[in-house]
Amino acid sequence: MAALLLDRSRAPVAFGRRAVPQLFEELQQPETSCRQRALNSLCDLMHDPERIYQTVNGGFLDQMKVLLEDEDPSVRANTCKLLYMLTGHNIGRSKVRDVCSLSLSLSLSLSLCRPAGAEALLSLVPKLMLKLKLQEEGEEEEEEEEVQVLLLSTVCSCSRLDPLPALSSDGVSLLGRKLSHHSSDIRREAAAAMMALSVSGDGKQQVCEEAVLPVLVDLLRDQEVEVQANAAGVIMYTAIITTGTNTHLTAASGELNVLIMYSLRALTSLAEIPKGRCLLLEQLPLLVERSEAAEEDQDIRRAAQSAVRVVTWAP
């Protein structure tokens, strides 16, 4: 202890369980020298399992993101050194993995804000789908909900550009199972991704063959408006299949007509809510097409016309 107190390259270390929290406070000081000394002292404490536990559970990993962008090279270097020491222990590896997984998912999501982002990430879609599948099968530890939401959102954005990578990775079946997740955020993103897949002919066919439609009908009564809207969107896209082109779909034509009616009624109800109306204005061209299609069932045409009136209503 005396050596530490006399060493100018180290911060003074408090006694007992106060040691790590006190050094965390030093890491937030504006003076670069304070951060440098605190990191050096933390590294000295990493031989003690109790101090390791305090470090990974006391907030250092949250501060790590800031320290890795510090303007001082020695602060960044010592942060990496401390991370290396933490990952030498099971609890440290687990926590660092969680933080890195979330940071990576956020980076992927943020990259989609640029026009070329989705196109650049298309090649990663099969790997993202495989990761979600392995977690589901228990071969990997399931990610926290926030990470799953970001992964699904990334898949959705990429699939709007090109649905083939996700469709080729058993996407409809996997997303179909996510539709029943207890988290409304995951249900919302899974339904949005499913809607992106159902735009293509192959996606529509797989939605029918994988028996996803009954699950989507249940989601029309979901408590979350966005979940309902996304589910209705999938049903609408799937329902425009020409039933004479495929034997399986021909057999399901009666069921599809019922689903169309359910979805149009759900859309009409959603449009009565300002947030729902805002979301559905994006799908107005499709609704108008439905309401004017001469070959469409008369009841469906009327239901679509009613939906258009409510969506376009203005006070």
Brief sketch in words of this structure:
This protein has 315 residues and is mainly alpha-helical. The chain has a domain at 1-86: Leucine-rich Repeat Variant.
Tally of alpha and pi helices: 21
Mean pLDDT: 77
CATH class of the domain at 1-86: Mainly Alpha
What is the terminal-to-terminal distance? 74 Å
CATH topology of the domain at 1-86: Leucine-rich Repeat Variant
Structural class: mainly alpha
Q: Percent of residues in beta strands?
A: under 5%
Over all CA atoms, what is the radius of gyration?
A: 26 Å
CATH architecture of the domain at 1-86: Alpha Horseshoe
The ordered H/E elements are HHHHHHHHHHHHHHHHHHHHH
Rough shape?
elongated
Q: What's the quaternary structure here?
A: single chain
Stretches where pLDDT is under 50 for at least 5 consecutive residues are 1-5, 242-252
The amount of helix comes to over 70%
> How many E strands?
0
Largest sheet: none
